[in-house]
Amino acid sequence: MDTTTAIILAIVVILLVGAVAWIMMQRRSEELRKRFGPEYDRVISERGDARQAESELAARQKRVERLDIHPLELAERERFIEAWRAAQSRFVDAPAEAIKDADRLVTEVMQARGYPVGDFEQRAADISVDHPIVVENYRAARTIALRNERGEAGTEDLRQAIVHYRALFEELLETREREVAQ
Fold this sequence. Notes:
Elements: H1 3-36, H2 38-47, H3 50-66, H4 74-90, H5 95-113, H6 120-130, H7 135-149, H8 155-173, H9 175-181
Helix pairs in contact: 1-2, 2-3, 3-6, 4-5, 5-7, 5-8, 6-7, 7-8
């Protein structure tokens, strides 16, 4: 083989390797975009760099895969549903307290399912892996709950927070999937 042929062959191999790498990166991006939905766009916007954001999302996914996330037992699920009903009915007379109850209940359900419940940002990141659509609700509810603690949230804000918490609560209980199956 002469030098020119060897150079052309090396260039072709380099181009093929580059094309395969590019296709794999595109596939990974698309898989992350599908898995994380709006959370994908939020993290990219927050980080300002797609590669860095995708690395973070992939790390979240790996972290959650190592956790022992499991469905609730029926009795546990029923206990949480009753506690939620009590918190929701409390909203009429004591909306600020009901928001605290809702936040606590969501955290308890997460813990019962096997999610670590350390700081809020880690909880939200973990939830985003399996519940990417409602994680934004969780963030919004938490923001309102913090404003509530400072006495800065009005009744309509608190109503919105309870709606946001309920969306995540229902997802964590897996009520929609079970209702469809019954």
